[in-house]
Amino acid sequence: MDRRAILKSLAATTAALPILSGAATTPDTGKCDSPACSSDASAVRQFLSDFLRKEEFNLDRKTLVKLMQERGRACCRALTFRQDLITNSKGDVDKLVELMGKTVGPANCTRAGNTITLIYPVEKCVCGWSPQRPPFPDDPYCECSAANNQSLFASVSGKTVTVKVLESPRRGGLHCRFQIELA
Q1: Residue 127 CA, distance from chain mean position
Q2: Which residues are 180's β-sheet partners?
Q3: Residue 27: is it exposed, middle or buried by C-beta count within 10 angstroms (0-12/13-18/19+)?
Q4: What's the CATH fold of domain 3-182?
Q5: SS3 content of the chain, % helix, strand, coil (to 5)
Q6: What pLDDT was estimated at residue 97?
Q7: Neighbours of 163 (CB within 10 A)
Q8: Phi/psi at 131 (5° precision)
Q9: CA 126, 119, 70: angle at the middle one, nearest 5?
Q10: For residues 48 and 14, is the Cβ–Cβ distance under 8 A?
């Protein structure tokens, strides 16, 4: 087996680990109900961050995006402020939009029907886990933030949620801007 095949196999196995280790406490949600869940999520985030920093350019795009998405979901479970948003929203998406608006500014988190527009009003990537590098179109690290927001809104709404990255500084845009669709 060559190095690329080994890495792909490892990546596929790694992406499944959070599902296997947290199946009882975090089935497809961003909510952590125990310290073990948060600890596991932090470990997964750290492992994937280290792995991706070293192996990003040895992975095919599809595998890389899956790993970024898993890192984003783990990050949502690991970050206290995200867990507080889930808890304090009490299952109400409008309350989540209001709470997010207190962080990013009310004009930067708005809802129209089943569509939420979320803008991080800064001109750089806000993730301290992502490498600093010049912007390039379709930077895969943005999929991590999209999955983080998907997990957050799905946890609160109890619905299927899709998130599209509309622009980001990593991809040459001014701000991180997401379109969040509730099913």
Answers
A1: 10
A2: 116, 163
A3: exposed
A4: Muramoyl-pentapeptide Carboxypeptidase; domain 2 (3.30.1380)
A5: 55, 15, 30
A6: 98
A7: 24
A8: -70, 145
A9: 55
A10: yes
Q: Pull the structure tokens for residue 110.
A: 């708005």
Q: What is the largest CA-CA distance in the chain?
A: 53
Here the tokens at position 87 are: 């808890």
CA–CA gap between residue 24 and residue 71 (Å, rounded):
19
In three-state secondary structure terms, 155 is: helix
Q: Which of 169, 173, 171, 166 is nearest to 146 (CA)?
A: 166
**pLDDT at residue 2, rounded to an integer:** 59
What is residue 53's predicted lDDT score, i.e. its pLDDT?
Answer: 84
Residue ranges of the chain with per-residue pLDDT less than 70? 1-29
Structure token digits, residue 75: 């990050």
In whole angstroms, give the CA distance from residue 125 to residue 160: 26
Every domain of the chain and the residues it spans: 3-182
Give the tokens for residue 99.
Answer: 């709470």
Q: Would the pTM of this model clear 0.85, i.e. be above it?
A: no
Q: Which two tokens stand for residue 58?
A: 């040895």
Put the strands of the sheet holding 109-112 in their side by side order: 109-112, 115-120, 176-182, 161-167
Q: How far apart are CA 119 and CA 149, in angstroms?
A: 11
User: For 153-176, what is each residue's pLDDT tens digit?
Assistant: 999 999 999 999 999 999 999 999
Provide the CA 76 distance to its chain's centre, in angstroms. Answer: 6
